[in-house]
Design brief:
With 283 residues, the protein is mainly beta. Helix content is 4%, strand content 52%. A hairpin with a 2-residue loop joins strand 4 and strand 5.
Length: 283
């Protein structure tokens, strides 16, 4: 019998099968800082701070090593991770890198149109105090396509790569890319599958029901791979239905999703299902 994990923060929680209780017994701390990568809601404040006037299309502005325009942002990135679990050696990682972002979404929390793209590259090295030496690459592409009024189709392509000079075995277990959980391939238990490369594609149809209530139908496909021994296997698939309840004019929603996967074939057991209750969209 696979145990069930309940995890939550505030109004965010999920119920899904999981394999190991190490995450419950371990301690972890992580943080990421992208210097001067403004979002559409912060550009005006930054422009005021810099004494720059935004008229129509924004002219490129430079602050230190960061450059941004109306849609493009680029800047340095700093990452810190520290974690202790019962199934892997202690990990302490300091990373330096850069981030490139393109954002034409009309609204940050519940976009109705636009494209979002973000690419980050972070290098961890013994010279700056890291447990292991590796480079972590991540690419995230999303598009929001209006169909009719509030009817919307959204899709996301996401890939993560953890590349070490000594091979995938040199990557700390905690930093191996994974999929599943409440945001990426719902229905797949997060942390069940890990390796040094992950590729995933998911889509969601967002359907207006009544005033501030929306319904969703979603599906995703993806898998993890070992770049040293690349082998094709049946991809992992997650799919399900959801309900959205708007809570303010910024279109922040309470999200409830019910999802299944192609891993467990039984329909009459709880381990075949995952429930997610949180705020904001999966992507």
């Amino acid at each position: 019998m696979v145990p069930i994990r309940f995890a939550g923060s505030g109004i965010s929680m999920c119920r899904e099968p999981f394999i190991s209780e190490a995450r419950l017994r371990g301690n972890s701390l992580s943080g990421e800082v992208i210097a001067i990568i403004p979002t559409p809601t912060t550009r005006a404040a930054i422009a005021t701070l810099l004494g720059t006037t935004f008229l129509g299309k924004v002219q490129p502005t430079t602050l230190g090593a960061a450059i941004f325009t109306r849609h493009w942002s680029v800047g340095p990135l700093f990452d810190y991770r520290q974690e202790h679990t019962d199934i892997a050696p202690d990990m302490l990682m300091w990373g330096l890198g850069g981030a490139l972002q393109y954002d034409t979404r009309d609204i940050t929390y519940y976009p109705h149109s636009g494209i979002f793209f973000k690419f980050t590259a972070t290098h961890y090295d013994h010279l700056i105090g890291s447990t292991a030496r590796l480079t972590y690459l991540q690419a995230d592409l999303r598009q929001f396509v209006p169909i009719y009024k509030e009817l919307l189709f959204a899709w996301q392509f996401r890939t993560d790569w953890a590349l070490a000079t000594n091979g995938a075995a040199a990557v700390p277990f905690q930093m191996l890319p994974t999929l599943g959980g409440q945001d990426l391939l719902r229905g797949i238990p997060r942390n069940m599958f890990r390796d040094n490369a992950m590729i995933a594609l998911q889509g969601e149809l967002r359907i207006p029901v009544w005033r501030f209530i929306h319904a969703t139908a979603f599906a995703g496909i993806g898998d993890v791979y070992n770049t040293a021994r690349w082998q094709w296997a049946m991809p992992k698939v997650g799919y399900g239905l959801g309900l959205r309840i708007g809570i303010n004019r910024a279109k922040v929603n309470i999200r409830f999703d019910l999802a299944r996967n192609n891993i467990y074939k039984e329909w009459n057991t709880w381990r075949s299902y995952s429930f997610y209750l949180t705020a904001t969209e999966a992507f």
